[in-house]
Each structure stands twice: as C-alpha cells, then as structure tokens.
Amino acid sequence: MIKAIRGTRDLLPPDTALWNFVEAAVRDVFRAYNFQEIRTPIFEATELFARGVGEETDIVAKEMYTWHDQARLFSDWALELLEDVREKVGGSHEKTLEYLSSQQAQIETDKGKAQSLTLRPEATAGIVRAYIEHKLGDRGLNKLFLIGPMFRRERPQKGRYRQFYQINAEVIGPPSSGSDSPARDGEVLEMLATLLDRLGITDWNLELNSVGCANDRAKFNEALRNALEPVKDKMCADCQRRAVTNPLRVFDCKVPEDQPIIATLPRISQFLDEPCREHFAAVKEILTKVGVRFSENDRLVRGLDYYTRTAFEFTHGALGAQNAILGGGRYDGLSEALGGPPAPGIGFAIGEDRLILSLQEKTPAESVVRKPDVYVAPLGAGTNGEAARLARELRRHDLVVELGDENFRLKKSFEAATRAGAKYILIVGENEVNAGAFTLKNLATGEQISVARGELAQKIKNG
RNA sequence: GUGGGAGUAGCUCAACUGGCAGAGCAUCGGACUGUGGCUCCGACGGUUGCGGGUUCGAUUCCCGUCUCCCACCCCA
Q1: Which of A256, A258, A352, A421, CA to CA, is 20 to 30 A from A134?
Q2: pLDDT value of residue A426
Q3: Are both A287 and A153 inside the same structural domain?
Q4: Is the distance from CB of A154 to CB of A63 less than 8 angstroms?
C-alpha cells in the first residue's frame, strides 16, 4: 500500500470543517484590520532562504527540502555514462579513464546551469521577495496575509509535521509609510489577541521582548560570550555547546541546575540603544492602553536571523513540548539583506496545525460542520428525475440538500438521512408525484406533513 | 540527527509460558416490498506494519527496517 510519506498527513472530514472555520475567522478578523491576501510560490530559489532566514539557522543548515531543478537530467547522464563505460571497459583502461574525465567535466558544466530550489520553510522571505520584485513599496504601507503549507525536514512529533500550515501576516513598507512605527507593532499584537479570543482560545500567554538592532546584538553577543567563558564548564552539555556556537540560545535552557547561572548573565535589555529602548517602551504603552495583557521576557530569543527589536510568542498549555502557537517580530533589515530598498516590517506566523490542536478540546469538528437541511428520498422506479428537480430547486434557496436513489427501500433512505444528520426527509414517491405534494418529515420530532412543491423551501427553512 | 514507547479487521482493543487470530462498534443483508433511531438473526471484513531468523509450529522470541507517539534538539 502506498502511504502518505513521513511527516505529512491527510486532513479528512469532519476535521477539514474546523480548518475552514479557523480560516474563515482569520479572514474575517484580518479584513477588519485592512489586511489583504498574497499568494507566493511554494518553492523559491534556495538563495532566498539562505540570505533571508540566515545560513547559520537550523532551518537553513539542516531542515530544508532542496533539490537541483535538473536532477532528472543528471540521473539520465549517470545511466548513459554507466552504459558507455560498460562498453568501453573492454579496451585499454587509460582510454576509459580519459573518457570518464571528459564526461565528469560535462556534468560539472551542466550542474552550474541547474538552479537550486527549495520548498519554502517559512513565508516571510517569499513575501519580502515579492515586495521587492513588484516594487510594492510604491503603494505605501502593505498589510498582507498568506495562508498555506510550509516544509521543514524535522523529526515529526505532536504538533510538528514536515508539511505544516501557517497563517502569516506582514506589515511592510518604506519608512515614510510609518512601517517602523511602534503603532504597527501594537496593532499587530492587538489583532492577534482579538483573533485568539474570537476563536475561543482564552488561556494564551503573550511573551514579549526586544532583541534590539544589529549593533545592539553584536555588543550583546560579545558580552554574553565573555560572561559565559568562566562559568560554562559548570553548565549542561547543551549549554557548553551553545556558548560557543550561538550564545543567545543559552536562554532557551530548561535544566534547573543551570538557572542560577543564567540568571546572572547579561540581558539584551541592558544593551538596547536609546531609539530601540524608546520603541519598545512605546509598544508596551500601546498594549497597556488597549488592554492586551503580556509578560515581558528578556530571555525570549527567536530562531531566525532577521528579527530586530520587537519579538514575541503566544504560548498555550495544551500543546506539550511544542507550546508555541504563534511567533513573530520585527525585521527592519530583511529587505536590504535581500537586495531591496529599506522596508521595515513586522509580522507573525501562526502554526495552524497547533492552533487547531488547542481548539479541538473546546470546539469539536462536528460542531462546525453544516449538516443537510433535507434528505431528498426518491422512492420507486422513475422517481430519480423528479427528486433531482426538487433538490435543484431547494439548493437554489441556499439549502443543504442530500439526494438519495430510487433503488433504496424507504427504510434505507431513512437510515441514510439519519446518518447524514439531515433535519428533514422529503419523500418523492409515486403518490407524491401524482398529487404534486410531497411528504416532509422532521426526523427529530417525527412530525410528518404533506407540502406543495412551491412551499417546500419556505417550510424547510422556517423549521 | 539522538533516546524511550507502540504497531493485530474501517475504529477501539483481546489472544496464558510459543499451539486453529477473536470481541464490541461500524458496514452490508434479512426479520420488515411506503417510514429511521431500538431489538433479533446472518454475512463481509486479516499476508498480526514490512523483511529475515530460531522452531514441528511465531501475533508471541531474536535481528533488521518502516511508520506513529513521547522527549531531546529546534521551532509554528
């Protein structure tokens, strides 16, 4: 049997109804804040992510699905080559080696022409690429959202898949459009709080930090390395490794014995320059004013290199180790890193799979499925046509209609209607067709009446 | 990538120390030819994840492999 490959999965009814429910709510809320949809390709040039997300991040270093666009060409080459060698190996070896060298050189040349492509591991790089490519800065401030699959080659576990879905939103524009204003940070965070509340997810926690600008971070990293040097030998193996490779990550450590040491380390908050400090203070002031609760966490660090200043995470208890339901922040230098104009921005990514997980306790998928209003049951040879005509009329009145088959015995039609969760069953038998009035039965109350064709839709709608 | 747990019917799970692979639910048919949910009877459903080994005999023991779950790592 051919199965879905590791880390991917099928989303089936009725669960898909919950996904649609979430996405409808998202679109509704985003519209109120004047966000508009953007759809970018699912694969991009590898270089985009290398430069945008950062060569040294885990995502780029070991989690991307990357291939050469002409991989098939190469395998064809290899097969031909083997065949040729098989033929020629009968002659002198020197000639064979010579032949191999010339073919290898040809492959190297072709490989240079093949483009390295990558399935997108996140959305922001592609959106900023589109912003630069289409000069969206000329429109002023852009408020964009994107819903779609992302791909990372990690070991799957609860709430983590190799193909997973993100709901992204970005506010980006030239500095003159106010894209770097703390007002935008405040608006985005308030929108998220509104969205989660709207979905009925109340027990979320917003953790907020400022990671400063590039200069701040360089100074901070330096100070951190110096502070870790004398104490790192007393820390856990992971921290000893982090102290060298990525000192910021030491703050992620959960080992209890290390906490007293971590508590003494310098914090990014002490290294923010004046503009960054003011920006952060302004964001917090707005949140307080609009009544969005948050907790400051100067240990919050993000895994992508492009983040500057505001960084945040919404967590939820019911998700196990993957407790981050969404994360985001400001990325003021990203456009320039990709060769574009200055275009400060702030955005976030919601892990839709995890959002659904945390929703499922309170909102089962069945509760958002729209059940049929009526099951139309043809009865006896030659009634399928009349039943189809009635179903067509009722569907035009925006009713959800399930249609049976004339070969079903009436008992079977009733069972099918009950299983489908229909509210009514409409019997279309010889008696009804002759009379021009149809038997309509409420499956919950058992009430059964005869209704003329013209009044059916109204009767069903009014319950 | 590392460590631990688990894979038996569509679903939830049994099967003693190695001895004919089962039940409930679901599905289909009948009791009941135009009235569902309840009941009763019957049927369908399996290469026990896959591949090898030990054995007279393997769901059971051993090895390999795949997938899922949990944790690490990291992140959404």
Answers
A1: A352
A2: 96
A3: yes
A4: yes
What mean pLDDT do residues A275-279 have? 95
By the 10 Å C-beta count (0-12 exposed, 13-18 middle, 19+ buried), A1 is classed as exposed
A:376-395 Cβ neighbours of strand B under 7 Å: 379-380
Distance A183 CA to B39 C1' (A): 68
Last residue within a domain, chosen from A325, A359, A393: A359
CB A295 within 8 A of CB A209: no
Q: Give the nucleotide nearest to A246 (CA→C1').
A: B74
Q: Judge whether residue A159 contacts strand B, using its CB and a 7 Å cut-off.
A: yes
A10 within domain boundaries = no
Choose the final residue of a domain: A307, A340, A359: A359
Nearest Cα neighbor of A170 from A341, A308, A30, A315 is A30
CB A425 within 8 A of CB A417: yes
Rounded, the Å distance between the CA of A445 and C1' of B56 is 65
Q: Is A434 exposed, middle or buried (0-12, 13-18, 19+ CB in 10 A)?
A: exposed
Strand B contact with A149 (CB < 7 A):
no
Place of tokens 């040729």: A84
Helix (H, G, I), strand (E, B) or coil at A258: helix
pLDDT at position A92 is: 65
| Residues A240 and A98 grouped into a single domain | no
The tens digit of pLDDT for each residue in A435-460 reads: 999 999 999 899 999 999 999 999 99
- CA A384 from centroid of its chain's CA atoms: 44
Summarize pLDDT for A304-363 with one digit per residue, the tens: 777 899 999 998 866 666 678 999 999 999 999 999 999 999 999 999 999 998 888 788
> Is pLDDT of A91 > 70?
no
Confirm whether any atom of chain B, the nucleic acid strand, is less than 7 Å from CB of A209.
no
- 3-state DSSP assignment of residue A401: strand
A405 touches strand B (CB under 7 A): no
How far, in Å, CA of A76 to CA of A81, rounded?
8
Per-residue flag: A427 CB under 7 A of strand B: yes
Per residue in A168-197, pLDDT (tens digit) is 999 999 999 999 999 999 999 999 999 999
* ipTM score above 0.90: no
Å separating the CA of residue A44 from the C1' of nucleotide B65: 34
